């Protein structure tokens, strides 16, 4: 099975730094294949994905990305009380904030589809 490069990094946002992690097949993700962005449930974090992202990257030959919401996991504390619609509101900002550090095109189909799924 192909090896996977794992990269941990932080994404600066207007409300604090978000922890993110990427898994990329060492032999190179298919250039034309859209990356996969994992959105966890409302209280989850990157660590709860365990080895699934690595297995997904190996099986799909695509890069896989996940992040911790502000106030969860290894991200900074959220600066305010979370609104009832925080998941919906964040979906629109998360794709834009994570696109550049994850090396995603701003119009990435997976970023757009993932954000739309949160509506």
UniProtKB/TrEMBL annotation:
Keywords: Hydrolase. GO terms for molecular function: hydrolase activity. InterPro entries: AB_hydrolase_fold. This is Alpha/beta hydrolase. It comes from Tahibacter harae. The lineage of its organism: Bacteria, Pseudomonadati, Pseudomonadota, Gammaproteobacteria, Lysobacterales.
């Amino acid at each position: 099975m192909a090896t996977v490069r794992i990269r941990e990094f932080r994404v600066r946002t207007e409300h604090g730094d978000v922890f993110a992690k990427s898994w990329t097949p060492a032999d190179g993700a298919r250039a034309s294949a859209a990356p996969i962005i994992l959105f966890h449930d409302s209280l989850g974090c990157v660590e709860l994905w365990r080895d699934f992202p690595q297995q997904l990257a190996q099986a799909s030959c695509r890069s896989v990305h996940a992040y911790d919401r502000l106030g969860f996991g290894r991200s900074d504390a959220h600066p305010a009380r979370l609104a009832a619609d925080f998941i919906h509101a964040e979906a629109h900002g998360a794709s834009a904030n994570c696109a550049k550090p994850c090396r995603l095109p701003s119009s990435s189909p997976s970023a757009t589809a993932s954000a739309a799924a949160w509506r």
